[in-house]
Amino acid sequence: MLDLAPLIQAALSERFGDRLEIDAGLQGLDEIARIAAHRVHRRYLARDIAPDLMRLLCACALSAPSKSDLQQADILVVREKAKIHAIADLLPEMPWLRETPAFLVFLANGRRLPEISQLRDKPFPNDHLDLFFNATVDAAIVMTTFLRAAEAVGLGCCPISVIRDHAAVVSEMFALPEKVIPIAGMCVGWPAEEGGITPRLSLGTTVHEERFAENDFAAEINEYDRRRATTRPYRNQREPERFGRNEFYGWSEDKARQYATPLRAAFGAFVRAKGFRLD
Fold first, then answer.
1. Buried b (16+ CB within 10 A) or exposed e, 117-130
2. On the CB side of 113, how many CA atoms lie within 13 Å of its CA?
3. Residue from 2, 4, 1 nearest 23 by CA
4. Rg of the chain (C-alpha set)
5. Contact 107/71 with Cβ under 8 angstroms?
6. How far is Cα 138 from Cα 130, in angstroms, rounded to an integer?
7. What's phi and psi for 4, nearest 5 deg?
8. Residue 75 β-bridge partners
9. Ramachandran region of residue 129, left (φ > 0), alpha (ψ -120 to 50) or beta?
């Protein structure tokens, strides 16, 4: 039997720059190994995903936990090339989207619960921010569970949150009704290449014991920038005409530049126009 503990250690060391102790006798190490070695895939073989398999993966995804069993997440499966190309046309910076065998849109459905209340002749005094929050969290959990199931059978995935830049267009394209909004898309296909592990912030930065603590924030970010640059350096610098060119260009500089420009400022208006109340 393959000893998975060293593989998991290696993957997490590459991810977090830290050595974790792994009990080789721990149950479920095969699944732990898949999660630890997660990779985004952006190139796919010209091979379809069988409808029965897609149905199975959606069923697994929708088996995920749901807040109060409210079941406020839906999955829209897109296979028609014309529709996939229409989405790709919105996102020319992501050419791999055009080649994906299937594109999924994960939906926060805040519509079903008020309709059930109306169906059962009950009041619905909960049309406020929590309805939106519960539905979006449910949809995010479903999306993550789909990704886990897809990777378990050998598929590769690439979440596409940037469809929210075009939320109104996507909503019209797929006839999404009031209180149903896209939270993210996802390319799904059989990988044409292995992909690489993306380093993450250290566990010392993001895992807190007993209370939230920011220790030496600047030092932790600087350390992560350097560690990440050893395996995943940035090829280009954002907006050098605005910010200049740095001798060292790390993750934090890239993210600071990315969010120095207003992004999705109209998304709140879109959500309200879809019938959600955010007070």
1. eeeeeeeeeebeee
2. 23
3. 4
4. 21
5. no
6. 12
7. -85, -20
8. 106
9. alpha
Task: From residue 7, give the alpha-carbon distance in Å to each of 41, 82, 87, 95, 252.
Answer: 20, 41, 37, 32, 29
User: Helix 51-61 and helix 129-152: axis angle, to 10°?
Assistant: 130
Structure tokens at 218: 């600047």
Minimal CA–CA distance to 75: which of 160, 182, 177, 187? 182
Spacing of C-alpha 189 from chain mean position: 16
- From the list 250, 195, 246, the residue with the least C-alpha distance to 227 is 250
* CA dist., res. 142 & res. 125, Å (int): 26
Contact 97, 91 (CB under 8 A): yes
The angle that helices 129-152 and 29-36 make with each other, rounded to 10 degrees, is: 110
Q: Which residue has the tokens 């014309």?
A: 82
**In the 8-state DSSP scheme, what is residue 154?**
T
Q: Which two tokens stand for residue 243?
A: 């910010």
Query: What's the pLDDT at 1?
Result: 61
pLDDT along the chain (279 residues), means of 10: 89 95 94 95 96 98 97 98 97 94 98 97 97 98 98 97 96 98 98 94 96 93 97 96 97 98 94 96
Predicted TM-score (pTM) of the model is: 0.95
Alpha helices in the chain (DSSP H): 5-16, 29-36, 51-61, 81-90, 112-119, 129-152, 167-173, 203-206, 217-231, 240-243, 251-258, 267-273
| Helix (H/G/I), strand (E/B), else coil: 255 | helix
Q: Is 214 exposed, middle or buried (0-12, 13-18, 19+ CB in 10 A)?
A: exposed
Q: Among candidates 125, 124, 114, 233, which has minimal Cα distance to 180?
A: 114
The rounded distance, in Å, linking the Cα atoms of 164 and 127 is 22
